[in-house]
Design goal:
lyase activity; lyase; alpha/beta; single chain; Hydroxymethylglutaryl-CoA lyase; 306 residues; HMGL; TIM Barrel; eight-stranded parallel beta barrel
Amino acid sequence: MSVKVQIVEVGPRDGLQNESAIVPAEAKIALIHKLLDAGLERIEASSFVNPRWIPQLADAEEVLRGILPVEKKGVQISALVPNVRGLERARQCGLDEIALFMSASESHNRKNINKSIAETFPVLAEVAKEALALGMRVRGYVSTVFGCPYEGDVPVDNSRRVTDALLEMGVYEVSLGDTIGVATPKQVHEIFAELVKDVTTERLAGHFHDTRGTGLANVVAALEEGIRTFDSSIGGLGGCPYAPGAAGNISTEDLVYMLHGMGYETGVDLNRLTEAGAYIQEQLGRELSSKVLKANLAKRQLEEHT
């Protein structure tokens, strides 16, 4: 029997947040429906941060009301929430899962959240407590686990401390992020091997960026450490407003192609996923970085002319 790997599609939020040209809400809604049609069951649809921080996601309510409730069984739609005010906005939209975020490095945390790590813990603990009381699921993100744009190397003990704190707050899963795409497979092996000493592999996920071309290799390294959940972005969209030079997330198309070729099960239809990638590529008016998307569209074009 093949082993199931869960994919958390973050394109509509993490992928689009770095786009300077505003994508209309109706296009985001259409994209999410295409991702659902492709078989993706976990999609991060938007963020309830202050619209002044990330104008691209100012339409969070409109987008979520355009896709909720999802009739398809087993589908989980989530959004990023920075504070209790954001949680209330998420609740009013009918969401039953939120994500909390912070960094493993002090400098990036201050740039991203405008607070120290110590100051961030009580804010997120309050959000988690209220969300759990409402019956919501809470996921956690830890950024800059493998390197920080301001501090360089980040000690693994920083990531352990933040991961443990999030788990104590009641999050069901912590996604460990290579925010600037500096990780190598050796480092991924070392860090996950350390962190799984305290946490079961089922409660950890990998979030890799492909800035230096090592994204998929890092997924393989994490798979070898027992990790079975990975974040990815349609077309390879993404970046980080607070990490200069950070390229996009690993592409969902590339990830699915690789996992299927390795014998893993994802539940995702690659042909339909290509439709979703082609759609958002057309909406943005530029070629996206996904290699599998490029190859599949080139193949289709060739078939149409023969």
